[in-house]
Amino acid sequence: NFTISFKVSDSCNEGTAIDESGPAIKQLIQSEFKAMKITQSTVPDDISQIEQMLLYFADNLKLNCIFTTGK
What we know:
By secondary structure, this protein is α/β, with parallel strands linked by helices. It has helices at 10-14, 21-32, 47-60, and strands at residues 2-8, 37-43, 66-70.
């Protein structure tokens, strides 16, 4: 099993802020589903990039669950 968690944030994407919610979600998922591999990424607050990322995860990687955080 494989899950993606990604943060939608301009400031985190630019490195001017620290993503605190992404690691918290990762820890929660790992504590509940120990065999699951989790990867994290950050994208800017841009609808086309968010859409592209979600479509890639769902259509190409065939993921059953994608968690997003952001403002």
